[in-house]
Amino acid sequence: MAMSHETLTTGLLDLLAGPPGVDGYLEQVSPMWVRGACRAKVVGVERSTPDSVTLALHANRAWEGFRAGQFIRLGAEIDGSWRDRCYSPASAAGLARELELTVKRHPDGLVSNFLLEHARPGMVLRLSQAQGEFRLPDLPPGRILLISGGSGITPVMSMLRTLCAEGHRGPITFLHYAPDPERAIYREALEHLAAAHPNLTLARSYTRAPGIGETDGRFSLSQLEAVEPRFGEAETFACGPPALLGAVAETWSAASLDSRLHTESFMAPSIAPPDGVAEGTVSFATSGVSVTNTGAALLEQAEEAGLCPEFGCRMGICHTCSRRKTAGRVRNLSTGEVSASEDEEIQICVSAPIGDVVVDL
Q1: Residue at which a domain ends, from 265, 297, 312
Q2: CA of residue 259 relative to chain centroid, distance
Q3: pTM over 0.85
Q4: Alpha-carbon distance 327 to 298, whole Å?
Q5: What is the pLDDT of residues 58-111, one digit of tens each?
Q6: Is-contact 39 124, C-beta < 8 A?
Q7: What is the domain-level CATH number for residue 204?
Q8: What's the pLDDT tens digit per position in 321-354?
Q9: How many CA atoms lie within 13 A of 200 on its CB side?
Q10: Residues 192, 226: one domain?
Q11: Whether residues 152 and 198 fall in one domain
């Protein structure tokens, strides 16, 4: 296959530039100029709730955009090390290199706390290409139901904004759960969209402030039928905490509507380590470190041992933390599945060792 003129030119320039390559020099001048890696400059910062920050970002030319509902890995340099976390853009898709992210504070969240406290215009962050199968289809269905809880609103907010921007005329129902109006992300943005689009029905439940939203209480079939009586005809996209998604999944399953439901959790489900007393030794072969198995996920045990493995979502989605296991058995804490293959790639954030385990780390 013939090489393009641009590819040939880039290769020659990298050869002349030596080991750092052209990007190595461009990174020193301006991180946004690199061609082989995605970068994003913060161009706007808004703190609309006490525990969240909304970032308007301008990506460099290496970034290929996203589909409404997908997520990206965002990296911030903290104390000299780059730390990545997964976030879903909340802006409409198709806006070239512009995107918007809202980050909610987590008590022990290194990246979320850093961004809430230090994000400012001009800051440059690392960006991955978009990933994930939770997204709007190429041809949007006629009737759509969007359900979200807490910061799980971000991917479905992107879906809603994309549908509105594209002039979707079918009925859209947006059902959102938040503790109270003050901590409801995108509260005013939702109200503006509802006022501008007659085909959009907005229903919000403030679980700690009843009587203020368009509906009250936690998710239930009776509440759903009051908000969207024809939910069985809709294609439904839901994102939020495991308890909400579990209740939604049970309702759709009981009505034999599983194929019409698309879900994504924004946090790892509550999962317990395997029953019984943890045994054996975990050996991190590359580092030459061995620890007594505590039964926790391998990522946690590595960090407790003073290692700093790369990771992203910490919930088994992004595969950033994948490492090769060369011996032993592990249990997937999300699925409960036990794997005993002697040479395999595992996600150490959701893999707990059973007995002696050796990992290339």
Answers
A1: 265
A2: 23
A3: no
A4: 14
A5: 999 999 999 999 999 999 999 888 888 889 999 999 888 999 999 999 887 889
A6: yes
A7: 3.40.50.80
A8: 999 999 999 998 877 889 988 889 999 999 999 9
A9: 23
A10: yes
A11: yes
Q: Which of 358, 209, 338, 355 is nearest to 284 (CA)?
A: 358
Q: CA end-to-end span of the chain, whole Å?
A: 38
CA distance 43 to 31: 15
How many structural domains does the chain have? 3
Domain-ending residue, one of 127, 155, 178: 127
CA separation for the pair 151, 109 (Å, rounded) = 14
47 burial type by CB count under 10 A (0-12 exposed, 13-18 middle, 19+ buried): exposed
Paired tokens of 222:
């009776």
Which two structure tokens, joined as six digits, stand for 11?
Answer: 């290769």
What average pLDDT does the structure give for the chain?
A: 88
Which tokens sit at 127? 């960006």
What is the per-residue DSSP string for 94-163? Answer: T-TTEEEEEEE--TT-HHHHHHHHH--TT-EEEEPPPB-S-S--SS--SSEEEEEEGGGHHHHHHHHHHH
- By C-alpha distance, which of 25, 69, 1 is closest to 266? 69
The amino acid sitting at 87 is Y
User: Which of 11-15, 137-141, 314-318 has the lowest average pLDDT?
Assistant: 11-15
> Which helix (H) or strand (E) segment is 289 a member of?
strand 289-292
Lowest mean pLDDT among 208-212, 244-248, 341-345: 341-345
| CATH number for position 66 | 2.40.30.10
